[in-house]
Amino acid sequence: METKTTLHSRSLRRAGRSPFARVLVLCAATVATALVTAAAAQSKPLRSLQSPQVDQIARAFRPITDKQVALSAVPNGFWGGQYRIATGESVTVYASNSYPVDPALGQRWADFLGTLVHGAEISTVTVLISTPSQIARTCGSDAVACYSAQGAFLYTPGEDPGGDLSAEAVITHEYGHHVAANRSDAPWLALDWGPKRWASAMQVCAKAKRGVLVPGAEDPVQYTENPGEGWAETYRVLNERKVGRAETPWDIVSDAMYPTAADLTAAQQDVTNPWTHGIVTTQTAAFTRTTRKRTFTIATPLDGSLKVTLRPSAGMRLGLDVYAGPKRVAHTVSARIVSRGTTVCGTRSYRVRVNALSGRGSVQLAVSKP
């Protein structure tokens, strides 16, 4: 089976390519870093991972950035298949023919992935344990690994890329991208913004509006402000803490995404109990000769799409105003069913004010929120 690799510009991805065709690639931040790593590799043999260790997740001191490639099938020159892990789930692992055929090796890598905080997405990933030269050909000359959301292919090194970066840290970071590719942060792309609860806790939308974060940034200058990478590193830290390892310096992405305990709790919920869709609630209020105004408060702990729908009794004419703090974000006057929407972006509560301009009766307010 032949694999074709193509590079895509960011504009092409935004314009028409499916979000799940995005591929994230770990690589050295600068040519200098790559040269230092190459020199270290020549002076010291790379650690071959016959048995990956969870305590090595914490060894990640090298800055990493993203590239995009298109991967659609398992290439020739790999052996392996599906392996069942302790949870009863199946994980697909292939290894390069450059490594001796040993089903126990594939089983150990599958077991390692099974130790990570994960959900049902673990059965959809295909891990390709590859040599540095294979990764360079497939992912890019400076890359140490890559992930294809299109086919859920995860190219990962079969040995440490260098003394400052372990293969376990690499695959854990990349698996974080696989988690995001299988989560929702509607109306945004979770692969770029992070999954719903974590992105809301981190105020990704509000920080993106202020230019503090740059979702989807793939250039070396803005890479550290990419919340997609911030999520992948948070996921790695989540697994660091799970095994009780001392945390490595937060040098890979911006300090604006350093996770608090609450952020890590939100991240774990995103993995183990994924957000899938919003909720709809309804309230009813009566308008009489003396009661002409009603104010409803809507709690919005998550960012996303907010929609309010007003259904008045026959003969009533109503004014509807929606406020985010002191700012009015929607206004209308109608005698019919009317809906207004806005995007929740860091605001944790809204007020809906309904004025009875004429008539009496009941009003039903339906609220759809993340």
Gist of the model:
The chain is of the alpha+beta class. 27% of the residues lie in helices and 28% in strands.
Produce the secondary structure layout.
Elements: H1 10-15, E1 23-28, H2 31-43, E2 64-65, E3 78-84, E4 90-96, H3 103-115, E5 126-130, H4 132-139, E6 143-148, E7 153-157, H5 167-181, H6 190-193, H7 196-201, H8 204-209, H9 227-242, H10 261-272, E8 279-287, E9 293-299, E10 304-312, E11 317-324, E12 327-334, E13 338-344, E14 349-358, E15 361-369
Parallel strand pairs: 4-5, 5-7
Antiparallel strand pairs: 1-2, 1-6, 3-4, 6-7, 8-15, 9-14, 10-13, 10-15, 11-12, 11-14
Helix pairs in contact: 5-9
Detailed description of the structure:
This protein has 370 residues and is α+β, with helices and mostly antiparallel strands. The protein folds into two domains: 10-272, no CATH class; 279-369, Jelly Rolls (Sandwich), CATH 2.60.120. Helix content is 27%, strand content 28%. The protein contains ten helices and 15 strands. The strands form three sheets. Strands 2-1-6-7-5-4-3 form a seven-stranded mixed β-sheet. Strands 8-15-10-13 form a four-stranded antiparallel β-sheet, with no helix packed on it. Helix 3 (103-115) links the parallel strand 4 and strand 5 (126-130). It starts with 9 loop residues before the first helix and ends with a strand. The model is unreliable at 1-46 (pLDDT under 50).
